[in-house]
Queue: 4 jobs
Job 1
Amino acid sequence: MVETSPFPADTEHVITARQVNFFYGATQALFDISMDIPGRRVTAFIGPSGCGKSTFLRIFNRMNDTIAGTRLEGDVRINGEDIYENGSNVVSLRRKVGMVFQKSNPFPKSIFDNVAYGPRIHGTKDRQELAEIVEKSLVRSALWDEVKDRLDTNAIGLSGGQQQRLCIARALAVGPEILLMDEPASALDPKSTIRIEDLIGELRNDYTIVIVTHNMQQAARISDYTAFFYEGRLVEFNPTKKIFTKPREKQTEDYITGRFG
Amino acid sequence: MRRQYSEQIIYVLIRLVMYSIVLVIGYILFDIIRHGLPALSWEFVSQYPRKSGAEGGILPAIVGTLSLLVGTIAVALPLGICSAIYLSEYAEQNRFTDMIRLAIITLAGVPSIVYGLFGLGLFVLFLNFGTSILAGSLTLACMILPTIIVSSEEALRAVPRGYRDASLALGATKWETIRTNVLPYSLSGIITGSILGIGRAAGETAPILLTVAAFYLPRLPNSIFDQVMALPYHLYILATQHPEADKVLPLQYATALVLLLLVLGLSLGAIFIRIHFRKKYRW
């Protein structure tokens, strides 16, 4: 499927996927997906439930490895490195590629320990250094002002939106280049959703963000590029503006105008 | 109308069943305390027995049971928790592991005398440990391992998947994830299950009968290769083998009471540990 590139000529592609097929046991979930994801931009994956968008996202930090019986064919590279090559280091990959999950999942520990968890397992022991990382990450995730006086309280006591921003801070604390977000706002109220979206807007210049969303308005609001998936296939990948004004494919148009999905 | 009546009848019935069970247990407890308390004294728990246990105290039996419990815990807890971690976190879920699980559950229902014979064959004779604390502890450990494994695996599985995912996604290895974000949250459940097993080990007679327990040995053990007296076995001797069974009746009750208090102490300890971990990791 050769086509003209939707990207400006100087675009640097951080993630490249070629002919990716993915299987859950005998069931094929992704079919022959090839895609280049640009660095320091927000790329949104949209499509109806079960279309494979989350599965595709979880390929980039090898989270699908944790599910028994899954299999991947094809070539996936991050900064040119084959992340599924034999002997490639999953730990350092996940350090580079952070993830925020649909259901906020802060550890039942203090706010401080949540954010410091990643740096600690990667070897930072100095209390002062940890404190700086924690503050920086919480400031970055726009949570610092709300929690700076109670860093030692249990994170479970935070509201849903705060918990999700804590999870973002926790992911930022290990210093990733890429942030994968799997419907990060789908369980939140509208006000908290706006805060997460604003936050993504602030992070877009420093991180490569890939976000799965089933909310098309959200994709339109926050992303630079949008990929539309349907039944395990990549139907269209274009600048968000083009997708929502002049989609190339009929299927894309039907989906974004609400004819199905 | 009829449905309302049957609702009422079921409700009364269930309550009656519950009360009758509480009543029976309460009566047993009351009976032991009523007859045991008068014979219970500092001398009784701190002195050696005299005249085949007809006089004196039960210190060697208390020390014996305690050392058996320490040995049992030291063997069964690490083995049981590690097995549970393997089954819940590492092993693939397939026919083979299902069979292992079934085998473990079946083992939990094997009569304790069978464990006793197994311990006699393997530890006492084949491995040549002799009738000793070591052989008895290992036998008791085998007996309670299934209980510990099953309850620990359940506790581990109850930890939400999201914690594992979050930790792995931050670049933690599987073991780091288990150690920092699965095991701590399941400890209260693991301890509860383990205490049930250990309480059972404290009261069992059959497994220690053939592997460690001494009929009458009025001294303390020097090493793990010594025989010891043990509370449940001592109780059994006093009640059925003693020539003057009627005369030692108060001593029987007092021994039973000491055993009960010991198990109660264990359970209380476990409850405190549970409360501690519950408070620390609330979710």
Job 2
Amino acid sequence: MNARGAVKVEFTPEQLVEVRRLQGLYPDRRAALLPVLQLVQDVFGHISLEAEEYVAGLFDLSPAHVHEVVTFYTLFFREPKGRHVISVCHNLTCHLLGAQQVLTHLKKRLGVEVGGTTPDGRVTLLSVECLCACEIAPMLQVDDRYEGNLSGEKVDRILDGLA
Amino acid sequence: MAEKILTRNFHLPGSHTLALYRETGGYAGLEKALAMKPAEITEAVKRSNLRGLGGAGFPTGVKWGFLPKGHPGPIYLVINADEGEPGTFKDRYLLEKDPHALLEGMIISAYAIGAHVAFVYIRGEYVQPWRIFSRAVAEAYEAGLLGKNIGSSGFDLDVIVHRGAGAYICGEETGLISSLEGKKGWPKLKPPFPAIRGAFGAPTIVNNVETICHVPHIVRRGAEWFASLGTKTQGGTRLYSVSGHVERPGVYELPVSVTLRELVYEHAGGVPHGKRLKAVVPGGSSAALLTADEIDVTLDVDGLRNAGTMAGSAGVIVMDETVSIPEALMVVARFYAHESCGQCTPCRESTGWIYKMTRRIIEGRGRKEDLDTILDVARRGAGTTICAFFDGAVGPYISYIEKFRHEFEALISK
């Protein structure tokens, strides 16, 4: 922990080997920026400003460039997220088949608004654009997994399965 | 029943494995291709009338032909697996159920264009497809199908799987290249087109997953066979993603000469609960809406263009009589406002303002002039931007309002 209470961002030697492997995959090492940011998020949970500076150093890029990249993409979290992330698709097909009811149900069950994290840090709730699984609409993504043909009961079962 | 080509193995357990792919004739196209001259393959792809199946519908062989002749290299092949067009989910099936079909297509295509490195850009949300495809890549390396001297042909190819991080615009080929290079996914001004100056400044061919999956079949069974499956200007079958108010949503592989009515009623089982059809989005959310009496059109690129809409990504979204078209437009407008990359002013500003106007119409705060303002903003912005994103948004803005204006007016006059 540093003076601001944030976790110090630094890779282990093994993780640095992985960074160098990723940088070596591409004709230009800077192309490894997205995979390395994914690694930062996997290891530290989110990408803080401190992490952006650290990553910039690994690439000889400006922190501003890294910040520009981090803020462009929806899958990079700049604040700590819950242990699980639930992303409800709200695009057209899911909308036609009840995405709003799914969201309302989740908000009520979790006691949070979209973008919020439960006080126990268990779940972050998001409402997102098309996840391209319209054949199982309404659907959501919970961490790595797609779940579809949602009903209230099915959403409850999904929530019950989350530690 | 038409022959299944790309989906023929989808129902088989283990369809994603090299063993099963080989048992069902997989990699036979590669063997044949490696005995051909690269230029012969490009010629076959041209004659097959294969067209890009990601959205733009550009003839694939013609695109390959734009590469500079005799280029010393490097030349890159980039596979666009950044599936994101609302209503589309077929590339997810291909990645999960038949990853070796994509790999075989990639090896043949790379050989044809002279690429020794190929990238596969998979959208970040597709974790499972990424895992399955990555395993297939590892299998292919172990089997000597990737790496040095593939099949003792002297041809080398490395495949790098690259994950996106959440941004629709990275499905636009130059936005994808920017993202692959480690930047935010801003599209690039053309010309130069990627075939001249693409990824890392080198000549690059960007092709959609499904497009490339067709290539082994074209090589194996011939360009004329492939061309004969479709229409005069587009060969082959295509994977239609059907969703919304239909009995049987899912992926349907059909010749591109199928009509929208046949797809919705005969294949997808029609509208459930005895409801009437109201409208259909025929090619992903960027395609103009068709009303219930406009569905006697063939689903090839030119058939839908002649009908004033587009085949796009072949994502077919069906809406029954209960759907509020203004609400549907608000949902679509929210998407374009969220996904505009912000580079070009007309797109960045118009998508935001149009979303706000559709929202206030839904919320009962619409103004009489709003509909004409939306149409005016849409028309003025079309064609003024670096990429086709805003042109894609204009399709729904104009068609939803022009074809269902009375529904919007009813909300405004309340």
Job 3
Amino acid sequence: MRRPALILLLLCAGSLALTGWVLRQDALRGRDQAKSALAVLLGDGRRLFANHFLAKADAYFHRGRYPSLFEVAEKQAGNHLVESLGSEGGDAGHVQGPECDHSAGPGEEAHAHDEACEHAEPSGGPDDWIARLAARFEPDRHVHLEGDEDKEMLPWVKLAVEMDPHNVDAYAVGGYWLREMGKTREAEAFLREAQRNNPDSCEIYFELGRLTELTTQDWGKAGRLYRLALVKWQAANAKLEKPDLIALAQILGRSAKVHEAQGEYEAALQDYTLLKRVSPSPEAVQRLIDQLQKRMAEVRSPKSER
Amino acid sequence: MNRVFAVAAVVIRELIRRKDFYVLFVLTAAITLLMGSITFFNEDDIARYVKEICLLLIWLATLVIAVTTAGRQLPAEKESRTIFPLLAKPISRTEVLAGKFLGCWLAVGITLIVFYLFFGVISLAREHELPLVNYLQAVWLHWLMLGIVAALALLGSLLMTPAANLSIVILAVIGIWTVGEFLNRVAAKAGGVSGWLIYAVYYAIPHLEIFDIRERIIHGWEPVPWGAVILASGYALVYMAMLLAAAALLFRRKPLT
């Protein structure tokens, strides 16, 4: 009995050690992710790991309190980090709880992931004494990482893209959090790597646009990146039965803001008009259109007075 | 009681002499240090993923130590025929079994302390804090869980061959640990007779996930309420007693030849 157990243990430990060594070698060499040694080692199975690691990053964001596989299936919920990312660019598509405050409107970053949102809450399930006892040993409140704790998510995001360099969600999430943490150089390098591995992804161009907008305030460059994102979105969604309207709304919302910042009100109005068609809260977009039209009128009136 | 302790002391000495623990400890330490040496996005002081990997390795290593140590006690005695001179002494079969269990449980406790000391050092080096109460609770609950596992392996060793016992107990424990807590949800969904059967399994199995407070340790939550710890301790002791009583019943009737 002793020998088979030892062999089994050595095999498990050996494979774990090998994985660690391969990861380290890749990290040290800074290799092209698409050709990572892990791809050779794990084959297509690495995609499963990638999704697991991204979910792990989400669990870390909630300090370990996270719905299980069973609860997720019951609620049919997605990855909350990806959802919170969706909320950033606008109202569109954000899976929201009844008390979510979406008053900030599209383009505002006030609501990244409101604590009142119920979507990150593990569902109740049957109530028996064992479940009640077990619950007392688990993290019992919905809280998020605070301050510089955000960095704790990064290893899982990095591991997710190491496992699957075509996991656009993982790149977008990583880019977003690196930007939020003020690590703009790392964010740009990460997103450029994402762009190399996923040249047709609109999400990556969108994230690059956000990074440019927030760090360099180079509206022209940001606008060009949003336009590229729009082109990529159209190419990817043109023939789809259910196009990704969340991504479209995000791109249009930011593109409109950039146009506004550059004083290109007509182009901004055009983007807002398109956004109104795809946004789940067109009233909020209409308010923005009204504000913009008011500003346009103000700009025109001094000219006419002259 | 002295006879029980004498048997237990032999089991502890045996664990110290064997290489299993040292191999597992060195591997756990090596993998943890290797993973900890990786820098992500130029952030040197990321701690939680290292803690997570270290704790997972500790859980797996101690599970294997508990099952292999407890599972081999009686078959090894039988195989080497040392059980006969042992039982020729003024000691009952129940006392032998109790001594074997106590020895395994204490030996696993010693390994746990060593593993958690290493974890504490890693945690202190990375986070510069040592929440002692949380760690004591983690060790205590982990030890209780391993007590149930050791009792289960001891019982299994009387029913199955050593290899089958090792595989089945490890699979059962990992199964309970990972999906045991969700059986009530499955039962509620299944409904009917199958629902009742799943409920019966749900209430019959020892819920090992209760003793797993890794998430609280990794993410720096406050300690578990002591009332809950006392309840969990009672729950574990009841299961250990039931499994050992069943094992004693079997061992008393089992022919040794």
Job 4
Amino acid sequence: MSNDKRPVVSIDSWSKLRQYTPARIALGHSGTSLPTKPHLEFQLAHAQARDAVHHALDIPALDETLRSRGHATIVLGSRADSRPTYLQRPDLGRRLNDDSVKLLKSMPAPEKPYDVAFVIGDGLSALAIEENATKFLDVMLPALAGSDWQVAPLCIVKEARVAIGDEVAENLGAKMVVVLIGERPGLSSPDSMGIYMTLNPRTGLTDESRNCISNVRPAGLSYEHAAHKLSYLMTEARRRGLSGVNLKDEAEALPRVNTGSAENFLIES
Amino acid sequence: MRYSHDVGGNRYTFDSLKDLLAKASPARSGDYLAGVAAGDDEERVAAQMVLADTPLSTFLSDAVVPYESDEVTRLIIDDHDARAFAPVAHLTVGGFRDWLLSDAANEASLKALAPGLTPEMVAAVSKICRVQDLILIAQKCRVVTKFRNTIGLKKRLSTRLQPNHPTDDPTGIAASVVDGLMYGSGDAVIGINPATDSIAAVTTLVEMLDEVIRRYDIPTQSCVLTHVTTSIEAINRGAPIDLVFQSIAGTEAANSSFGVNLAVLQEGRDAALGLQRGTVGENVMYFETGQGSALSANAHHGVDQQTLEARAYAVARKFEPLLVNTVVGFIGPEYLFDGRQIVRAGLEDHFCGKLLGVPMGCDICYTNHAEADQNDMDVLLTLLAAAGVSFIMGIPGSDDIMLNYQTTSFHDALYARKVLGLQPAPEFESWLKETGIFEADEEIRLAESLPKPFRHALEHLH
């Protein structure tokens, strides 16, 4: 019997390249397969992403936090009455349930029409909302308070898709809607929040009417940078009377993050 | 035309050919979402029985999407080769299944038959096939394509090296390219999904990949997966583009939602052909598809998602692509709910593509909101490799950090090659062995040390 004590896991000799990318490179190999350690690290990341998808938004806690900051809130729900239904029927997640419509219609009309409604939806990651929504609004809302924006009560919507903001805003009579929503969780980003802005929202609009700010989270786009982008988009949308694809080019004039350079070690001489 | 069938004391009627196809389709969430699926299992089998008795020739006279209003239907009908169809013209769908399973169907007869088949015919027969039929029949087909190497030969499995990075950082991309090459990945294509779609950004990436391929003398091709019109413009400005990419679907309206039509695809192909960058062949297109894309664009005409997917391969076939990739689990659980549905769909897509003569690969993948995991992907990978899939994806550790989904890793491809005795494209296999990435024996073994040219490139890094 052989007494070979050489390690069976081979380390990849290009491990130092890991500093240049968050990708799972240089994982090593047992035979040609994934060694135990990176295999189980992947399983953990997937479990966390799955938990983020199925985690139910703690609405009372979010509601309490927002109210403690002096914000008026309204709690609503979509027509998807469970997570499995929500996942398979995006159409139901885009519409308010009857009780929610009734609740909004029973609201007293504001003295001046609302300029903007903020809608907070769980989307595909309630974790993203729990981690980021309040912190983002803490940066965003004070900036608006000092301006002439008439802000509607904050609406929290369960089992929500982005488009449900249109129906919420329509019932509130708001001229613009900003939807904060949990994005599809990636393996390395279970907590990513998206922000969608739509001018003149009404039921039935599609994505080309919206502007999107993606990947808002501590390891992604900062709250300050996201608030800066959103303020820019809101101001420009109101000034030019449009949102969506036609506003996109202008928005991209904002400073870009890390475009990198054309240089890299593989083709340097 | 109406169809009906009595089964178990119940009479089932089907309003049209597309209704029959939809209700005969194995259950999947997208068809429920569209409201076209069978109401229950008995109705589904009744539909399959009626479909089995339907003559193949019916599909030539009864279009599921109107000829007058859809250029994909016109392409399918106008390009149909009646002479090639002749050997099976007398068969029903059920009889066609038996023929495909029989010894009459072999590599040569299936190659000759392909131009005589329409997507609806192959979709129909797939609906009455079990998983083992989808594998057995597909592995008889051989679709060989060429650019700088040869894809689709028997006992070969190629991979797309997919070195995506969330900000297109060239060094980050290069790190993933090295990782992939050292694991023997990248013979189908080195293909980047760019985070930024501008012509300048795309050109930067194209030039970088071109230089890597030339510097290390790699017998493969590059692609930056941007809109066909962006590629055309980049070519006009002198960018060294190997393959022109485009997502396509099975109806004119769905393609229109992607901003393309047949004429634009032709322009893209002509632009790439004009560069004459292929060394062993002239297949210059790379297409991606996926069940559910037409429905998500509200352009499905009441047709089930699997039939529409097969129609996308008729679009692909027209432009003689190097690679066609069904991105099977990317779209989400509202179209394919779980591992079971994803596995079946991946095998159907591969089967239909190969019968139509398309160089079919599969992005064996899932998102985190689908009921699927790595085990499901292992199942589909093993089955597709047994079915002779032309290529799969290769990505570091299965985690696409730019598109936020999971696909097959470099390690996964080596598993499939090892278990089924498959090698990369022959030109690439030689390069791997000459460079010292693979040991020069029959078994797949990775070399212990970094090959010299790459050792040199990494020397200056800390």
